[in-house]
């Protein structure tokens, strides 16, 4: 059985109240080295058999159409969990 991991993050211009709450709590807990937090979503999709490039492409399409809200979120990774091999997905390079 194979597994595909999909990661979705809020677009950089979208407010992230959960991330703000976490970044506010970190210094109070002694973690002063972190200056920003963005909270996203992770999905694990299981498939029968091995993860092929075609499966990764279908997972990317599902991520864009079902697993994310393209108005406010970016699909940042679609990977074969067993190999860590990324499929074609835009990578989020926005501020932390």
Automatic annotation (TrEMBL):
Single GO molecular function: ATP binding
UniProt entry tagged with the keyword Lipid metabolism: no
Pathway(s) where this gene product acts: Purine metabolism; IMP biosynthesis via de novo pathway; 5-amino-1-(5-phospho-D-ribosyl)imidazole from N(2)-formyl-N(1)-(5-phospho-D-ribosyl)glycinamide: step 1/2
GO biological process: 'de novo' IMP biosynthetic process
Keyword Iron found: no
Segment forming the signal sequence: none
NCBIfam families for the chain: phosphoribosylformylglycinamidine synthase subunit PurS, PRK05974.1
Family statement drawn from the similarity comment of this UniProt entry: Belongs to the PurS family.
Entries under HAMAP family matching the protein: PurS
Name assigned to this protein: Phosphoribosylformylglycinamidine synthase subunit PurS
């Amino acid at each position: 059985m194979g597994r595909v991991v999909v990661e979705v993050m809020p677009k950089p211009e979208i407010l992230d109240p959960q991330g703000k709450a976490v970044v506010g709590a970190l210094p109070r807990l002694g973690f002063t080295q972190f200056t920003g937090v963005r909270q996203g979503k992770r999905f694990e999709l299981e498939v029968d058999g091995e993860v092929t490039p075609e499966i990764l492409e279908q997972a990317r399409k599902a991520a864009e159409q079902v697993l994310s809200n393209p108005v406010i979120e970016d699909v940042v990774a679609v990977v074969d969990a067993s190999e860590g091999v990324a499929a074609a997905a835009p990578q989020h390079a926005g501020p932390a």
